[in-house]
Amino acid sequence: MRILVVEDDLEIQGQLQRKLGQLGYQVSVAEDGVEALFYISEYEIALAIVDLGLPRLDGMQLIQQLRSNNHDLPILILTARTGWKSKVQGLNSGADDYLEKPFQFEELVARVNALLRRSSGRTQTKLHIGPICLDMSSQLVCVNDKEVNLTAFEYTVLEYFMMNPQKVTSKFTLIDQLYDMNEETESNVIEVIIARLRKKIDPSGELRPIETLRGRGYRFRKLAG
Q1: How many other C-beta atoms can be found within 10 angstroms of the C-beta atom of residue 121?
Q2: Are residues 111 and 155 located together in one domain of the fold?
Q3: Residue 74: which H helix or E strand, with range?
Q4: Strands (E), the chain
Q5: Computed over its alpha carbons, how large is the radius of gyration of the chain?
Q6: Cβ(7)–Cβ(29) under 8 Å?
Q7: Pick from 119, 143, 163: which residue ends a domain?
Q8: Are 51 and 23 spatial neighbours (Cβ–Cβ below 8 Å)?
Q9: Per-residue pLDDT tens for 134-176?
Q10: Are residues 181 and 214 in the same domain?
Q11: Domain end: 74, 89, 119, which one?
């Protein structure tokens, strides 16, 4: 899952990129609104954290432009501006939540997780598809109530699949979920990850939750409970 941090303070930008990355998110960064528009138009962004005081195109203008172009990704405003008027103005521009600087990282993560759950229509942190259960808060995966140990990449792929059941997902979409935009990789890496994931969550081969669609990618099937 990719988060876009739009922040021109390089220290804050770097801290958020590092800490959110440690939680398993893929994090892209932009220093102004124009750069942010490019990322959002070219890549699948799950959520944007937007500072208001940005060069070229400020945060408020960025949010308004995104909403006018029917981009519905969750947006969390992050700003040093204080007072209720700034908060109301930011929310009225189309943002979903507002956090003032300085802030506690734990609060930011809680707000990010809440926005992601809300945007996907969920209020719970657990995903259930057939006998497979994924807890996004603890990143634990169980099959038939037995814990399955996954690598970070395997977990990210499974989480994406379970958040998008029945959706046809290309290899390039999965690469975008796993790697930084400037990091080169080959599509056969995805094939290896998928093969390992299949063995771990379906060792007997009875469930067959991940379908391969020749020339199109993969699809995670809905399974009987």
Answers
A1: 6
A2: no
A3: none
A4: 2-6, 26-30, 47-51, 75-79, 97-100, 126-129, 132-135, 140-143, 146-148, 210-213, 217-220
A5: 19
A6: yes
A7: 119
A8: no
A9: 998 788 999 999 999 999 889 989 988 998 889 999 988 888 7
A10: yes
A11: 119
Q: Which tens digits make up the pLDDT trace of 11-60? A: 999 999 999 988 878 899 999 999 999 999 988 899 999 999 899 999 99
Q: How many residues does the chain have?
A: 225
Give the residue among 40, 39, 30, 38 at the shortest CA–CA distance from 6.
30
Beta bridge partners, 51, equal 78
pTM for the model stands at 0.67
Q: What angle do CA 156, 185, 182 make, to 5 degrees?
A: 90
Using CA of residue 154, residue 105, residue 73, residue 10, what is the dihedral sign? Answer: negative
Same domain, 189 and 147: yes
Query: What is the bridge-based pairing of β-strands 140-143 and 132-135?
Result: antiparallel
Do residues 7 and 55 lie in contact, with contact meaning Cβ atoms separated by under 8 Å? no
